[in-house]
Fold this sequence. Notes:
- By secondary structure, this protein is α/β, with parallel strands linked by helices.
- 20% of the residues lie in helices and 26% in strands.
- Helix 7 packs across helix 8.
- The radius of gyration is 24 Å and the shape is elongated.
Amino acid sequence: MHERCISFALPVLVGLVACNEPVDTPRASPPIPNFGPVPTPRQLAWQELEQVMFVHFGVNTFTGKEWGDGTEDPKIFNPTRLDARQWARVAREAGFAGIVLTAKHHDGFALWPSRTTEHSVKNSPWKNGRGDVVKEVAEACREAGLKFGVYLSPWDRHEPTYGTEAYNDFYVNQLTELLTGYGPIFEVWLDGAIGPDVKASPYDTDRWYRVVRELQPDAVMAIAGPDVRYVGNENGEAGETQWSVVGDRWYPSECDVPNRFFTWFWSDPGEILIKRADQLLEIYFQSVGRNCGLLLNVPPNSDGLMSEQDLVPLRVFAASRDRIFARNLAQGAASSASNVRAGDEASYGAALAVDRHDETFWATDDDVVSATLELDLGSPVFFDVIEIEEAIAYGQRVEAYRVEVETNGVFNAVHAGTTIGHKRLARIEGATTRRVRLVIEVSRAAPAIRRLGLYDDKERP
Ligand code: FUL
């Protein structure tokens, strides 16, 4: 949280500052030298979002297919009760920061009245061909305070120029319509998928990237793009070791995952194929809790509404997650560290890892790459969830760490891990202790830890 301060520019009062925050609000820790590649501002902003909702919607919603072949009659698209505000409300109430909409899937059907194709909502009976799903979702997101992003499938099974150079013009024209007509776009999802029987078009991705940068400089390009990478599966499960650094690039991962087993588009399967709340919670721990963005799909039905059968587990998941993280038991604990950068407690002290501020962190001297942070919780406290965050604006550093708790004067490890990154969450068996240590065993450079959190998952069996 930034201090909101107003400087008075009166000649006799130069430098006088009035603050409306409590006086104990610490200042952000001063910058430290970057280590290796660091995130661009757009990547850093994206990583802070943590949870985004994916929305697959289109002709497949009406045919029950996952991959339409582009021969669909646009007349089948008729979501008579479509309410994008409901979608946005669902996303917001479940704690998601934005929505990424499939503006066009592999079937080539455009959810906006594109000038580039006839395979679009403009030839559907929905709103007599005058509807625009992209517009409705963009506006609903804006109203709900959510970010809005677009998925535009490069693979297009309807467009005749697909497979030729000319398709690049077609694709750039579609990108241009989407990136100029609907306000700020935070993410452009460039799906790498393509059927086994097809040769990919000669994609001029450099040109596409230039267009996105020019029209929406704050947008990240994901998957087949340079800013955010595919985690490698669609189970919502990142590896235990998860670097945002790949070679000499900052390239954080995203876990795109459907809330239904195996399917992205709505069809009426009965409840058996919908993931339960505890499975969604596990996905959260294995994606957000392993230094990844979570992009969780929830498909609207053929009426144009998200269905109760999808929403019930989502709500229960969100409530469990919020209950677990409601109270950080480490916040404000007495703290000390084996090393504090320049001995400057106010700027880099251990206490800054257990305050409530994202802008402050504990950091060590540059030549200290293993170090210990110790907390005294005042009295024995039970916890079974651990949260650790690095100050990734300066790079990702930690390679090995462990968390120890004290019992009868002896510290024992209850969790050990490799990478931390933006966020690391761990569920442990549960420990009751007064003293806790975070031991950074190996770090590529001086560790910079912005949060150590301890939580009690009361619902856990
Ligand atoms: C894949 C697509 O083929 C799926 O249909 C879905 O859109 C998923 C998110 O990406 O590559």
